[in-house]
Amino acid sequence: MQLDPEDIATCLLDDTDAIAPGGAPMSTPIVMTSLFAFPTLEALQEGLRNESTTHVYSRGLNPTVEVLERKLAKLERGEACKCFGSGMAAVSAVMLGVLRAGDHVLFVNHIYGPTLQLADHLATFGVTHDVLLDTDAASVAAALRPNTRLVWLESPGTMTFRVLDLEAVASVVRAHGALTCIDNSWATPLLQKPLTLGVDIVVHTASKYLNGHSDLMAGAVITTAERMREIFYRAYLLNGGIQSAHEAWLVLRGLRTLPTRLRQQEADALTVAHGLRAHPAVASVHHPAFAEDQALVARQFRGFSGTFAFTLAQDDVTSVRRVVNGLRHFQIGVSWGGVESLVIAPASGHNEARLAAQQIPRGTIRISIGLEGADVLLSDLQQSLDASMGAA
Ligand SMILES: *Cc1c(COP(=O)(O)O)cnc(C)c1O
After folding, report:
1. Model pTM above 0.70
2. Which residue in 150, 286, 291, 349 is a FRET match for 275, CA 20 to 30 A apart?
């Protein structure tokens, strides 16, 4: 992992922490207020005319949340960031901020399920979409329609961890006059900086690695100041899916250890991934470290986080249940990116058609590597895989 030293400084105390003239507090003050009082009615009315830059009401700006917003904008090399009460609030705000009735959205790669469910719902408002699983720039160019306004990317993709060439895709989409948005939650801004590759908008869930302790929900959008004004006035202020000052403070605390957590989780995940690859009960391991185009992986990522998947040689739900339920050091649950290792599998026994449409094998299991230690986690997986082979 080749982290930028400037990014490590940004995660710790730096000039983004200053909230008043003079020295910066080592721990950000939690400004618990719904509104800000003005000396005169005229001053308040002037503030209301510039709510994206003035403290008027905490549904717009809050000083604690702004510290986190400055840090995430700086880490992503973007001009502006807004934080939200969840990753899905951030995803919704981008879609509501940039889309109009009649627009088309193209989703490229394997996309987080609820994001696609939101797109289904947007059909009610006259926004259509397609999902493209071929990730090369030529296929993306061929799938663009005259009314495609937004191309939504995930790289690596949910569950399959396939990597796409962001620079190539962003360039064909830009030539078409549409916008690109990427969900950069897996890599975090420390490991992949899509705005520097030509992508227009970045969204994050901060409920995963950014906060890192599985104890809150948060999200963020980073883009240019101009586009953010559109998202701020059309979606942020009106949807009201804001982040609270208290939770922003917790994410700021989580950020302090993000570089160190990522280094450890990358190393442990790679140890486990190599161990799984060598196990006879495992057909394949889905991790960007094993992607075909390693030159692209090296160009796009400064390193890997600790979430990946593998597919069992026994490609059936019974084997998946046996392996997952046989683990002792993984918690069974949704989400990822915390300090406790987690496991989940997409196959439920009654979603065969959907999995087939998404080209996700039934025997797929996703794990998020926490901080228990690679030896403990790999032997746990090995004992459960061994037992499942004996039972089959
Ligand atoms: C969890 C997740 C989200 C949604 O974030 P929430 O904070 O749970 O709303 C979005 N994208 C990806 C890739 C996720 O894993």
Report:
1. yes
2. 349
